[in-house]
Write a structure and sequence with these properties.
Helices cover 37% and strands 20% of the residues. The protein has helices spanning 25-32, 69-78, 90-99, 129-132, 144-150, 165-178, 198-211, 218-231, 241-255, 257-264, 269-274; strands at 13-15, 21-23, 42-46, 59-64, 83-86, 104-110, 113-114, 136-140, 156-160, 184-189, 282-288, 292-297. α6 (165-178) crosses α7 and α7 packs across α8.
Length: 298
């Protein structure tokens, strides 16, 4: 069963492949669009790059590849990496390295494993200040860099993860209030080998919940419902807090295809690293194709 597929009827609820009850989008839209509420940003989730739809210079796209590209990117910029570039292939990454000046590191993976001849793999634990501080990183990964390419026509491209969830939500609210009309925001999930990734959908729901954003489309409803199912019992509970919440996320990660792939490849520790909420206040933002992603602190 395709987890993207549901059959909604007005006033009813559906249950998707992750066991998440999803309310009718028509009903939710009516509740959100009340005369007493201020105008809010138009935010939608795309569960795969091919479902992103048309974007333009007015669009902000948050790319999510929780396991593990965007988690690594956040960690690297938090540890003072100069910039992050993305490449669609190994040969393109090497060509970019040859064209850039200064200290450059080749980073990434194929089938979860480090690429022979590259400096770093795709584990957040590798991206320490001593290793990446002051250096430009070039990433090529199985899923994440493909998602960045799909968003290339957008005016603003950000990289999101659970590690910078609150920072992303704050940035989106602030930027949406700066314009004369509601912002067009997309949260783009990279997926796993062309299929919907539960860990990316969970992260999208975490961002929606953190910003209390309105949800009207089916994919956003699924993302928010998934987040509520996995984590809501711990949010705001002083007796549980981050450790149990992180444990719930990590347990969920282990049930996803991406998590299973990492466990099989010997990278189970990365599930815990990617499951930490709000670790960093930095957002990787694409400055330009020549300058790459640089850190915005919020």
């Amino acid at each position: 069963m395709d987890p993207h597929s549901t059959q909604s009827t007005r006033g009813h609820h559906d249950r998707n492949a992750w066991g998440v009850t999803v309310p009718s989008p028509c009903r939710t839209t009516c509740m959100m669009n009340t005369p007493t509420q201020p105008e809010r940003p138009n935010i939608r989730v795309a569960t795969l790059p091919e479902r992103l739809g048309a974007v333009d210079q007015r669009t902000t796209v948050v790319v999510i590849d929780t396991l593990r590209f965007t988690s690594c990117a956040c960690t690297a910029l938090a540890h003072q990496a100069s910039a992050i570039h993305v490449a669609g292939s190994i040969s393109e990454a090497m060509a970019q390295r040859d064209a850039l000046s200064g200290p450059v590191l080749l980073c990434g993976e194929r089938e979860c494993k480090p690429i022979p001849g590259f400096d770093l793999g795709n584990s957040p634990s590798e991206y320490t200040r001593g290793r990446v501080g002051g250096r430009t990183l070039i990433f090529t990964t199985t899923n994440g860099t493909r998602a960045v390419a799909a968003a290339q026509r957008a005016g603003t491209i950000l990289l999101g993860s659970l590690l910078n969830r609150q920072a992303i939500a704050r940035f989106l609210w602030k930027s949406s209030r700066a314009g004369p009309s509601p912002a067009d925001i997309r949260i783009l999930c990279a997926g796993t080998n062309g299929t919907i990734a539960g860990e990316d959908l969970l992260t999208a729901g975490a961002i929606l919940a953190a910003g209390d954003f309105p949800v009207t489309d089916e994919d956003s409803l699924q993302a928010l419902a998934l987040w509520n199912r996995v984590c809501s019992k711990h949010v705001g509970d002083p007796q549980s807090g981050q450790p149990l919440e992180r444990e719930s996320i990590q347990t969920f990660f282990a049930q996803t295809d991406g998590g299973k792939n990492l466990i099989a490849a010997g990278y189970q520790d990365d599930l815990a690293l990617a499951a930490e909420l709000d670790r960093w206040n930095v957002i990787p933002r694409l400055v330009s194709p020549d300058c790459g992603f640089q850190g915005v602190w919020v």
